[in-house]
């Protein structure tokens, strides 16, 4: 994944509209929060709350930082429906769940490909990055978390 | 529960180019019927599971089509599809059919024939947007790896223990003529095999394959009509996930956590059977990968979280140990033809309780057996069996 999208001149599109705010200086994931029990889900849903069945869910911007709850590598090439580089061009990547404060854990790609440099509990921050290219050359942007290198504010993981 | 298993049959698991999934199912059924000493025409009902057909795997076929090969007797035949817990679910329904008084004698069969490589899932089929798979998150092995990585962090389980579990599976598989992987691997070879999803390497995983297994079930008090060595199915429980359990294909998880559906299924199965985990002499647990066996030991109530590190190092789960687990090599050595996998577990428990397991026989005349399958997206199925 290239680290910088702001200076790019190629066409770009988000993986899916409504997953994250874009374009944005400080992007956020977009979720829903139950007006009854406060449960937050990702991505935003038009359905009811999976915890209390309440049908009144409000759209909410999720925190941009959190702590790494667990992670793994994708070391072998992934087949369809993955749209990133495949077969001989496949680039191994890492994924994990990041706990965003006490709101929700979200599953996401991580920017650090080396599992030995990832640690459960480390602080992570959201970025929007290209990870695939459409046939017409348009870059496809996904949401990913990057280690901040700082100590987490609290050990919530 | 007043239900007995009086006949068992299996088609070897692995790769078989010249036979369809349904034909493997018919093979296993005929063997189970012979074992029970009955004809197909005697059966009153059947439940059958084959997942492959629903996910586009040619050659699997629908279970109820078996009747045209075995005899169009008009019996009730119901297809069961419940992910990796398909067989556990089919057995539970068969047991309930007998318990209800509707039938006395029936059959449960499971078979599948999957293509090579990891299972590929369609996001929309599990209620997710297509973006989830496009993003590279729709690979089941990623879930297993993330669950065990968190578990290792919380409870101090080492990668060496993952390798010990896999080495045991291959060792047990080597003494099982129906297993797919029959070559032992050292712990070093397992640790150094290709990394697939940290911390899991290739030899720690099971692979999709082909196979079939079947059992003949009857009302418990009629078992002596068919065999002098019945194995009694004391309980069979199927549960789905609760809010907060960590399951495959979850774009998000809540902060609050709840136990896996396996915890509920095991507790219900033990309560219904009037048996405690300590009473179990031999267990078959879902080892989609080595970490799953470790976590399922605790989820089923056989130990506390974290105890596995010392237990496995001490050989407790080996044949001859305190609690032999996956004596036939489990999923790691047998692969996973989804519909057949849980049936294979029952086949092995019946062999062990009959004392017919040959060189992999658990010593000391085991009397209580246990099976557990786990399926996406969060289904647990457990059963307790006794002599």
Short key terms for the protein model shown above:
heterodimer; A: five-stranded mixed beta barrel; three-stranded antiparallel β-sheet; 9 strands; B: 387 residues; Peroxisomal Thiolase, Chain A, domain 1; nine-stranded mixed β-sheet; two-stranded antiparallel sheet
Low-confidence stretches of chain B: none
Provide the CATH superfamily of chain B: Thiolase/Chalcone synthase
The biggest sheet of chain A, with number of strands, parallel, antiparallel or mixed sense and barrel status, is:
5 strands, mixed, barrel
Number of helices of chain B: 12
Q: Give the strand content of chain A.
A: 35-45%
User: How far apart, in Å, are the first and last alpha carbons of chain A?
Assistant: 26 Å
Work out the strand percent of chain B: 15-25%
| Gyration radius of chain A, in Å | 16 Å
How is the largest sheet of chain A built, in terms of strand order?
A: 5-6-7-9-8
Most residues in contact, chain pair and counts: A-B, 45 and 36 residues
Tell me the span between the first and last alpha carbons of chain B. Answer: 13 Å
Query: Can you tell me the CATH topology of chain B?
Result: Peroxisomal Thiolase, Chain A, domain 1
In CATH's first tier, which class of chain B applies? Alpha Beta
